[in-house]
Each structure stands twice: as structure tokens, then as C-alpha cells.
């Protein structure tokens, strides 16, 4: 069964990728708005396997999915800053975090901040496209660390045996 789902997701992602790349060809004369929308939909498609994985893993209450926060946030009244003391966030919150970082990168890129407010001052350094690259690299680094956390969890907690 797992092999069928893997093949389904790999096929659909390949089709979406091929379609998105075809839209980049100049002979189709596709507007930038359509291209942007296709990439947004492609990113949104990543939520579907995440929801599927959550359901197949036993739902939100499953130890591998749930968010267990123990004394995560303590407010220091003298400085008013947040102290993160101890936490255990597994895959679902990490996926959402990656989407938040990527969404912020996208917003910076399309709104052209900061050069929109200070024209000419960010032509060489600090341009929104550069900030987009930095945020995307951060999102990939964050996702890489999420994979390491998940790997560590799986090394310490074996997968349940399949139900027949």
C-alpha cells in the first residue's frame, strides 16, 4: 500500500513540475500572474501529503504527530522577552513552520520590501530578491533539521507493525 501512495505522489508532483516548467517557455506567452499562481498551487499541494501522513500516522494525538510543549514559553516580566526552555515539536508543526518561513519569503519578494520604501538604496545589497534567497535557504535548513528530528524520533520509536 505504501508503494502505491509513494508512486501516486511522485507521479502527481512530476506532472505538476512538468506543467510549471512548460509555462516558463516563451512560446506559450503565459503572464507572470498565471506563473505565480501555478507555483503557489504547487506549494499548496504539499499540504495534501502532510494531511494524508497525519491521518495514516494516527491523527493529531499520535506521538509522532502531536505537539508536546512543556514549559515552552516563559515570559520574563523584567525584560518582556520570550524564553524557550524545553520543547518537543515533531513533524506536523515543523511542516507548518516551513510553510510560514516560505510564505514570508514569498511576501517579501512580491511586495518588493525594502526597495519599495527606499528607492535606490537597495540596488546592490539588501534587495528583496536577495532576502528571498536568504529566507528560502533558511527554510531549507529548517526543513533539513526537521528531517533530522524525525529521523531521531524514528530511531528511538520504531514504526508500528502494519495492520492487515
Description:
- Keywords: Receptor.
- This is Adipor/progestin receptor-related.
- The protein is mainly alpha-helical.
- The chain folds into 2 domains: 1-45; 61-164, no CATH class.
- Helices cover 59% and strands 9% of the residues.
- The chain is built from 5 helices and 4 strands, in the order H-H-H-E-E-E-E-H-H.
- Strands 1-4 form a two-stranded antiparallel sheet. It has a two-stranded antiparallel ribbon with strand order 2-3.
- Helix 1 (2-23) runs antiparallel to helix 2 (32-45) and helix 4 (91-111) runs antiparallel to helix 5 (128-156).
- The longest helix is centred in the last third of the chain and has 29 residues, at 128-156.
- The radius of gyration is 20 Å and the shape is flat.
- The N and C termini lie close together (11 Å).
Topology:
Layout: H1 2-23, H2 32-45, H3 47-56, E1 67-69, E2 73-76, E3 81-84, E4 87-89, H4 91-111, H5 128-156
Antiparallel strand pairs: 1-4, 2-3
Helix pairs in contact: 1-2, 4-5
List keywords for this structure.
mainly alpha; 5 helices; 9% strand; 164 residues; single chain; 2 domains; two-stranded antiparallel ribbon; 59% helix
Amino acid at each position: 500500500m505504501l508503494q502505491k501512495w509513494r508512486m501516486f505522489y511522485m507521479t502527481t508532483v512530476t506532472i505538476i513540475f512538468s506543467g510549471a516548467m512548460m509555462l516558463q517557455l516563451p512560446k506559450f506567452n503565459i503572464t507572470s500572474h498565471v506563473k505565480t499562481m501555478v507555483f503557489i498551487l504547487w506549494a499548496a499541494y504539499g499540504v495534501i501529503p502532510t494531511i494524508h501522513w497525519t491521518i495514516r500516522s494516527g491523527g493529531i494525538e499520535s506521538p509522532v504527530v502531536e505537539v508536546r510543549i512543556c514549559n515552552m514559553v516563559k515570559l520574563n516580566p523584567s525584560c518582556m522577552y520570550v524564553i524557550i526552555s524545553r520543547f518537543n515539536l515533531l513533524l506536523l508543526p515543523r511542516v507548518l513552520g516551513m510553510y510560514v518561513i516560505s510564505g514570508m519569503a514569498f511576501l517579501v519578494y512580491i511586495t518588493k520590501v525594502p526597495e519599495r520604501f527606499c528607492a535606490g538604496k537597495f540596488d546592490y545589497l539588501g534587495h528583496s530578491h536577495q532576502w528571498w534567497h536568504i529566507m528560502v535557504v533558511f527554510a531549507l535548513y529548517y526543513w533539513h533539521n526537521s528531517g533530522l528530528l524525525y529521523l531521531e524520533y524514528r530511531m528511538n520509536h520504531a514504526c508500528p507493525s502494519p495492520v492487515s
